[in-house]
Amino acid sequence: MSICQNPFPVGPAVRHQTRLVNVAWGSTVVPIGSSAPIVVQSMTNTDTADHIATAIQVKELALAGSEMVRITVNTPEAAQAVPAIREQLDKMGVLVPLVGDFHYNGHKLLTQYPECAQALSKYRINPGNMGGGKKRDDNFAQMIEVACKYEKPVRIGVNWGSLDHELMARMMDENNAKPEPWDAQSLMREALVVSAISNAQRAEQLGMPGDAIILSCKVSHVQDLISVYRNLAGRCNYPLHLGLTEAGMGSKGIVASTAALAVLMQEGIGDTIRISLTPEPGGDRCKEVVVAQEILQSLGLRAFTPMVVACPGCGRTSSTVFQELADSIQSYLRDQMPVWKTRYPGVENMNVAVMGCVVNGPGESRHADIGISLPGTGEVPSAPVFIDGERTVTLKGDNIAAEFHEIVRNYVERRYGVRS
To answer: Which residue ranges make up the annotated binding site?
Structure first.
């Protein structure tokens, strides 16, 4: 029996080749598409007219790791506030590009408030919310004209909740005339893809550079999203924005988004992502950024913060010590990253293990860059620490957590510190 050269291939498929689109503000340039890393983005939920509150939330999202932040521009007051938001961010040294989210009246706001058009780094256009017939065509052309004038890229984002009614009606008539018509769901998916590509082509006809267009087709069901983007990727080379729209709250939204996006990115599809989580009352908007980063890092596509491996616990681990230590270490590592990512290059690739008993504890700790195996129920009250696969010290007593924190800090400085 012959053994193949690589019986266990690992990793995502070769990335679907798309055009490169640059989204910029000042010295900050975020490349999307081609061979650029998959970009994480998010969206504020403040009233954009409140420029202080919006600037604060944009800063929070940017510090959490959002590489672009989208803001709603829906009223004259919101459009007037955009330059003030940009100015406030610049004063704080937050040069994250701002994306304007337009529906219904975007053509008016962009032309009537040129300072808004200039302060934004990209426009999101939904062709389904621009009227009908000639009015829709004129409004779309007006937005593209502004984008070309100020050299701003656009995302043409179609959504099955606001699909072009005229396009859908025409396709339904054509479908009904077929000997074997498609079912309604298949026709809807086709309409999304046709709408996205045809509007992108029209934008190019109107003078928009082909390397300034990004596409998205948003739906709220996992299998529909996978099907639509597989089809879209096979029919165009525009960069693709991935996201499950109206994903939901809490674990439901996280699981659904992960299930859909992980499949597509494993197949090499997708250039930028957003996790559209409904925040819990008083919840942290930055959670959607963290989830997006963790999906990419779990797939091995990017690294943002050191990964913490921790066991789930069982009857051998009736103590909560390992749970508390895993939580504190994970929070500590993420909190340090705004400083560490510049001070300690490569630290985002570090793996830390916090294990709860002797069954897998020592083994997992040896596999990690740095790990600790805490005592389970009935075990000797000691915690061996492993660094780069070698047991280095055994911690005991009531200060294990603080001592391990210090060991991690010293390890990071020693391994990732820049030497002069």
So the answer is: 311, 314, 357, 364
